[in-house]
Amino acid sequence: MSRISLFLVLAFAPFATSQDKKPPEKKDLPRVLYAIPLIAKPGEKQKIALRGRFLATVKEVKVTGAEAAKVKFLAAKAAGVPNNYPAERIGDSEVEIELELPKDAKPGEVKLTASGPAGESNAYTLLVRDDLPVIAEKEPNDGFEQAQPIAVPGAVEATIKNERDVDVFKIEGKKGDKLRIEVQAARFGSPVDAMCVLYDAGRTVVASEGGTASNPDPVLVVTLPKDGAFFLSVIDANDLGGGNFGYRLVVKAEK
Question: Shortest CA distance to 181 belongs to which of 250, 94, 254, 243?
Fold first, then answer.
């Protein structure tokens, strides 16, 4: 072999070798979207499913933001996406955990992080109960005649159970009462895109809200125009629904 030929072989050998090497396969990081049930209960041990993307291979879940909080990993699996809903909104996998929060766990501070072979997920902020009285949703409540009475102040833990489901709640008040009506859902990853409408007893709309770009969850601050009963309807703006579509409805006096 001539010197020129030998030089060419040696010069291009590293290039050929580097070309043969494939870049490492990029894995999708796990992502937690929301919890089922959506609301965590301080002072109680409860089972929770964390729903999201690329969670089927998760091996561990960590909790921060509450001293003495305990979390136990139970299982991870792929999960079906119902009715061809977008997986980016509903999730295609979930992690089951057992969570025990201390009684003094504070809303907005408890975060859960899932990790596995692909890496670590986002730190998901859990919706934790505060000191408002808890009201369980009672079905059927899908019309004015079946409206569920709720006391003020209170926090209803509810679900848009089916497509085109309408939840209606009845509030008693006096003229001049100033109320704050707030849905907690999308901020905590819930697929609910909520719309609220407040009616008076004559079915006239008093106020309505569907959220904003900066806050996708509706907040109504309203001064009641008269004494009597008022009806609050909550729907998903896209007429979607299912067992995953949880929300918390807070009704209290506005100072």
Answer: 250
- For the residues of 125-185, what is the DSSP string, one character each? EPEE--SSPEEE--S---SGGGPEE--SSEEEEEE--STT-EEEEEEEE-TT-EEEEEEES
The pTM assigned to this predicted structure is 0.89
Distance between CA atoms of residues 202 and 45, nearest Å: 44
Listed as ranges, residues in the chain with pLDDT below 50 are 3-4, 6-12, 15-16, 18
| CB 196, CB 182: distance < 8 Å | no
pLDDT the model gives residue 20 = 57
Q: Are 150 and 137 in contact (CB under 8 A)?
A: no
> Structural domains in the chain?
31-128 (2.60.40.10), 134-253 (2.60.120.380)
SS3 89: helix
